[in-house]
Amino acid sequence: MLLASIIIHAAQPIRQERSTASIYHLLQGKRSAQTLQDAHMYGLTHLFGIYPKLQRQVFDQIADETIQEEGKVIPEDMPYFNGMAYQSQTEHFLYRLLLLVQLLSNQANEEKRYIPVTDNPAIQHWIKQLYRQEQHHLDDWRNGVYEELYGLLEKLPQIQADLFVDRLTGYQHIGLTTEQLAEKYHVHHTDVLLYQTSTIHHLLQHAEGDTPSYPHLAALMDSPKQQIRSITSTAQRTRTMLERGMSVEQIALVRGLTENTIKDHIVEITWLDGEAFSSQFISEADANIILACATRAGTNKLKQIHALLEGKYDYFQIRLALALRKEREVKA
Questions:
Q1: SS3 for 173?
Q2: What's the pLDDT tens digit per position in 199-210?
Q3: Helical residues (DSSP H) of 157-258, grouped into ranges
Q4: CA atoms of 268 and 260, how far apart (whole Å)
Q5: For residue 51, which phi and psi values (nearest 5 degrees)?
Q6: 3-state secondary structure of 170
Q7: How many Å apart are CA 30 and CA 49, to the nearest integer?
Q8: Percentage of the chain modeled with pLDDT above 70
Q9: What is the tens place of the pLDDT at every residue in 81-97?
Q10: H helix or E strand, kind and range, residue 74
Q11: What is the CB-side half-sphere exposure of residue 316 using CA atoms within 13 A?
Q12: How far apart are CA 320 and CA 322, in angstroms?
């Protein structure tokens, strides 16, 4: 079971330091400072937000069974995910593509009356705009989308490609539902959605990385200015105030928040953008001491690091140092 394999994969780095609830929040893409930090700290950014509609009851049941029977569970090969990069546009891209395929198929057969695969007005409006712009080039679009999809789906495991193709709706053909796909391919319904997300991330990766080869798929992506950054909106407001030279105390006063909340924002910003502001609160030498201690102890637990350093550094400084480690590893 794919979800069980993902839970095992995520539990390995955080098992002794976080509860299974943290994995749930990670997969759901909870936009809190803690979840974003966990994603970066434990190298799990690829899993962030890959299952936003995962029900807690379903997760708890599968997680409990998986952890109890971990030694007996045979992990499945992990498909490609890049949740932190694509979480904000996965669903938009998916339904634009599904509706476009439906439109091109029906148009080729001169069918003008059909029920759209999505009732999302924003998606429908987007495709209508595309149709108005490209209505004289629909043959090119039909051939282009087919060739790009065929080439990319061919690179995926057979079951993953088949699950996606069977989801497509076209002229006098209705795509299968999640439940129907789960029954046809003998997989859990959660895995159907996970494979779907993986497939979309696969398409996005190639469309973004090689736009000249995949121009039609790339056209379905959000523009960079529409893509949501990983940083939370409240942390972004704190960042703007820091850029104006305001102190933690001033920001907390103006925003009516606690100083600890503002410090949470600064740690979150550091995870995303490195030492842009962290140097105001911790020196490079002190960060090195904290990181050396964490490495020797083999832990990311704040309380343990704080005790080993005999309280010389506060929890805010320890969190900043751990956030800086990611940037240094990238540079290395």
A1: strand
A2: 999 999 999 999
A3: 158-165, 178-185, 189-209, 215-218, 233-243, 248-255
A4: 12
A5: -145, 70
A6: strand
A7: 7
A8: 92
A9: 999 889 889 999 999 99
A10: none
A11: 15
A12: 5
Residue found under tokens 């069918």: 111
Alpha helices by DSSP H, 15-137: 20-28, 33-41, 56-68, 83-86, 90-108, 121-134
Q: In this model, does residue 226 exceed pLDDT 70?
A: no
Measured distance CA(50)–CA(56) in Å, rounded: 14
167 contacts 195 by C-beta, under 8 angstroms? no
CA distance 267 to 277: 9
pLDDT, average across residues 275-279: 77
249 token code pair:
């105390």
DSSP state of 166: T
81: tokens are 């995910």
Instruction: Give me the domains of the chain, ranges plus CATH numbers.
Output: 2-78 (no CATH), 90-186+210-226 (no CATH), 233-331 (1.10.10)
Mean pLDDT of the chain: 88
